[in-house]
Each structure stands twice: as C-alpha cells, then as structure tokens.
Amino acid sequence: MTSIPLLITSPHPCSYLADNFAQSAFVKPQFTLTNGVYSQLISHGFRRSGDDVYTPRCENCSQCVPVRLAVKQFLPNRRQKRCLQKNVDTTVTIKPVAFEQKHYEMYLRYQNQRHAGGNMANTRPEEYLNFLGSTWCDTQFIEFSIAGELAALAIVDCLDNALSAVYTFFDPKFSDYSLGVYAVLWQISTAQEQGIDWLYLGFWIADCQKMNYKIQYQPLQGLINQQWQFLKK
Questions:
Q1: What are the Cα distances from residue 80, in Å, to 53, 77, 122, 181, 186?
Q2: Predicted confidence (pLDDT) at residue 122 exceeds the cutoff of 90
Q3: The pTM is what?
Q4: 106 and 150 in contact (C-beta within 8 Å)?
Q5: Whole-angstrom Cα distance, residue 183 to residue 89?
Q6: What is the spatial distance between Cα 214 and Cα 204, in angstroms, rounded to a whole number?
Q7: Which residues sit opposite 157 in a β-bridge?
C-alpha cells in the first residue's frame, strides 16, 4: 500500500474508558482519499468519520480493537433470530447520502434519549451530514420503516469486498424492535446476497458496555498486532 501521511493528535480524554487518555492518527487532509484507498485502509484498522480517516494510536492502551465479521460463515444466535422475527414486517429503502429533515429530527431525538448531555445532542444540520456522509466514499442511507413510519436509519459504506457499518440511529418510540441489531443483521444479509466477504463493525472494546456488544456477531475477527485473528465470546 502507498505510504500514507499521518497526523498524530495530542492526548485527550477518552470517550469510552473513564480516566483514560486517547490519541489518534489521522490521514492528513492533503492526501487524496478514494473509495479504493479507504478499502485498503480499513483492512489495516482505520475508520471513517465524515471525510476524516483515523485509527487509535494510544501510548498505554490497546483496547480499541478493529473488528470485522466473516459474513459467509455467520449464523444468527437465539437473540438475533428473535430480532429478525420481530422485524418481519419492517421495510427497507436504500437512499443516497442527502439531508432530509425527518432523518435529522429523528437523529436529534435519538441523541437526546440515548446520549443526553453529549455534544451530539446539539448537532447542527451541516455537522450532522458532515459526520455521516463523505465527499469521496460510496455511502448509502438505509431507511427502516415500521407500519409506514420512519423508524431507523443506518449509514453504510460500500467498499471493495466489504460493507462498513458507519452508524445507526432510531426513533426512541421503536426501541422495542431492537433496530440497532436488525440494521446489522440486514447488512449481513445484504453482504451475503452480494457475495461480499466482510462487514466491518468499527472498534470492539471489551471494557466498554456500549462497544462490547459486537462480540455477539460471530465469527468475528479482530486486528491485533496488525494480524486479523478470530475472537471468541
């Protein structure tokens, strides 16, 4: 892979582990990113946030483990089967990246319900779209509707031989439908139908409750010491 120029951030409070400090290595903005280049970078542990591509680079911590699911070998567990049954009538619409007021309002409801007090609860429209979309990545907005009403939105990057789950949010009134789980299951099914090998799920952090759920999707691989290896529950 071509040498990628990186910019290392200063230490800052970690968003996931209390009392820890974090650092990241960002691809320098001057470097031209494409969908193909990112397809290689994500296989080396990088992740997209808007147009920015980064990887954790913490001095004394390695708990952020990039993970990907081998979708062709996936079989749903009991809880995931219940989720599929619960959403048997949920409908899906695939859309290009674009600002829609109904998406944005649902995003704010989700943030205020699930992450009250966080910075994202006061996100402005342009910040919202800059966070989820990208000027160079092949990204789709996946709408999930229940009884004709918008219930969730999943943001998915379509890469070379992989999908990447960027972010999912839902209307709190539909919490009982486990739409975060269903969105991942839908992406797995879509990857299987398209003959794609991998679904990237971001970072798994064993000691962080909101990030350790990913271990429930098996067989899961983690990038440890720059080698992909299977992780067991």
A1: 31, 5, 32, 7, 11
A2: no
A3: 0.96
A4: yes
A5: 14
A6: 6
A7: 139, 164
CA distance 168 to 64: 19
| pLDDT reading at 231 higher than 90 | yes
Q: Is the pLDDT of residue 199 over 90?
A: yes
Domains of the chain: 6-64 (no CATH), 68-102+132-231 (3.40.630.30)
Tokens for 145, please give them: 């509707």
Tokens of 227: 């080698």
Tokens read off for 65: 């483990």
